[in-house]
Request: fold
Amino acid sequence: DIQVTQSPSSLFASVGDRVSISCRASQSVNYYLNWYQQKPGTAPKLLIFFASNLKSGVPSRFSGSRSGTDFTLTISGLQPEDFATFYCEQTYSIPHNFGQGTKVQIK
Amino acid sequence: QVQLQESGPGLVKPSETLSLTCSVSGGSLTNYYWTWVRQPPGKGLEWIGYIYYSGATNHNPSLKSRVTVSVDTSKNQFSLNLTSVTAADTAVYYCAKGLDYLAVWGSGTTVTVSS
Reply:
């Protein structure tokens, strides 16, 4: 199985900050890496698919990048509604796997 | 815009079978993949498996042979059966549209395994 290791598990940030979350795959997943945002009591929402493609309707402050097996979700200018838990997901091979999650909290 | 809604019993006894249905509205099942994901209380997301509208399916080997995913195109629904459940299967169960990425999610349904 391909494992995806997400870091950090939590972080504290202020409104307006630039925030980066990392996800490392245990082997190549090509560009098959997605990012989701989940707020308490609600279903996850897709933000970024195939490493760097922004889903329609998602604010442009969210971006994704890839360097080999390392992937990064960046939020440029954190907004109050962005405080949530973020997950990466590899869909290169079965079983698909999610990262452990990163909780972004208010400093 | 397609919408998904999970339904099924909220309480299942240990050793019995968990059965959930995902109803698709605002669009057709045809030509798409459909996926099940679960989330134990306070924990992360676990991928369960998927089905294509034609019936092709695959699932997480960690669940061994307990998982069956089926589709009913006439009702625009797909279903999840999980046999021999234990307390470890207590979770919020989500259905979602897609395979390579999950673009649309249901709101989730909580299933508790308890006698």
Q: What stands out?
A: Chain B has a mean pLDDT of 97. The first strand of chain B starts at residue 3 and ends at 7. The interface with chain A takes residues 37, 44-47, 58-62, 94, 99-103, 105-108 of chain B (CB under 8 Å). The CA atoms of residues 30 and 53 of chain B lie 5 Å apart.
